[in-house]
Amino acid sequence: MNKNSAEQRNLGLNTTCTHVGEIADEQFKGAVSPLYMSSSYAYEDVDVKRYPRYFNTPNQEALSIKLAALEKAEAALVFGSGMAAIATSMMCLLQAGDHVVFQQSLYGGTYHFANSQLRRYGMDFNFTTGTSLSEFKAAVKPNTKVIYLETPSNPLLAITPLKEIAEWAKAEDYITVIDNTFASPVNQNPIELGIDLVIHSATKYLGGHSDLCAGAVMSSEELIKQVWEAGICYGGSLSDYTVWMLERSIKTLGIRVERQNSNAMAMAEWLAQQPEVKQVYYPGLTTHPGHELAISQMSGFGGMMSFDLQDHLSAETVLEATQIIKASMSLAGVESTALLPSKTSHSLMDKEDRLKQGISDQLIRFSVGIEEPEDLQRDWKQAFAKAQ
Ligand SMILES: *Cc1c(COP(=O)(O)O)cnc(C)c1O
């Protein structure tokens, strides 16, 4: 099932992005993978019963090979959304009576999934108070089965020590799961650090153009087989047309994210010097508390950051005034976007709790695109001026 050969795991990043898993066009010798939209395949003389919900159409299988190679995993599955990937993985790993430790500061949809779904099925969970190993240790119970991580975190870009937590979890027989969406496989490969299962919202960096919704799970062949068993029941596979679009998008993943990394570094350094900005949260800055840890486990600091405006500036006015940077819910596209966590992802949170976590009304989350940094700087500058 969607095997990834050692040879393919050894190719460089951009070669992997461009070529691994491509389907040869035997008939017309076209340069790109043909798209097979069939939902029905002959049942005679074939080993595999192919069907879109079985995650095994030619295009689904081919993309899985590329995704597995990107995360240095044995196998992968493509889902219809990030949440389909998360929900299916969790329902496969857990049963009634099991307990999950979730890292504090979780993607909102995952938080909602835990609260609205896990409890209904007799599964228990709690949240850590922070991202250190001791805070994870403090949260486990005798029935803990899964440790669920997200690093860098949303929206303050806290860094979780992956290797330390993976070693401890392995010794205690917990399964470690990470949502690696913010880092993308270009900047962080958790499986190499000992994490068991990696999940992506492919709607974000993997897609990268804010025009498709998809998800992915990467892991060992053994765990992927289990996720597949659940997956064919829950039916969260991805349509072949979007699979093909995602394959096309990933060809430029490496160069997109490398540019987003360098743009984000330039923007973080620039923002930190602006009098209108109180504080910048970006793991690439030496002032960030997770900077050294980020260096040890990431190959790039990513395209996501947050910053606090000075108290006299209205963050809402600033976001209304930007011209290039779009005020938008999503992230990770080639276009820069920004939002207010206090009004979006964390709006349902008790205000006191939110402030305690450092998420003020002045906090702007900034997803840096591939534009020229000078243009983005000019855009923020004129927006700051309008909010004075
Ligand atoms: C967007 C997102 C998700 C959910 O992905 P969908 O594709 O919207 O279902 C999960 N985790 C993170 C970190 C995200 O940003």
TrEMBL record:
SUPFAM superfamilies according to UniProt: PLP-dependent transferases (SSF53383)
InterPro entries, per the entry: Cys/Met-Metab_PyrdxlP-dep_enz (IPR000277), Cys_met_metab_PP (IPR054542), PyrdxlP-dep_Trfase (IPR015424), PyrdxlP-dep_Trfase_major (IPR015421), PyrdxlP-dep_Trfase_small (IPR015422)
Family annotation (PROSITE patterns): CYS_MET_METAB_PP
Record organism: Aureicoccus marinus
Cellular-component GO terms for this entry: cytoplasm
Protein name in the entry: Cystathionine beta-lyase
Gene3D superfamilies xrefs: Aspartate Aminotransferase, domain 1, Type I PLP-dependent aspartate aminotransferase-like (Major domain)
Family: Belongs to the trans-sulfuration enzymes family.
Alphabetically ordered keywords of this record: Lyase, Pyridoxal phosphate
Gene Ontology terms for molecular function: carbon-sulfur lyase activity; pyridoxal phosphate binding
Keyword Lyase: yes
Keyword Repeat: no
Residues bearing PTM N6-(pyridoxal phosphate)lysine: K204
Cofactor field: pyridoxal 5'-phosphate
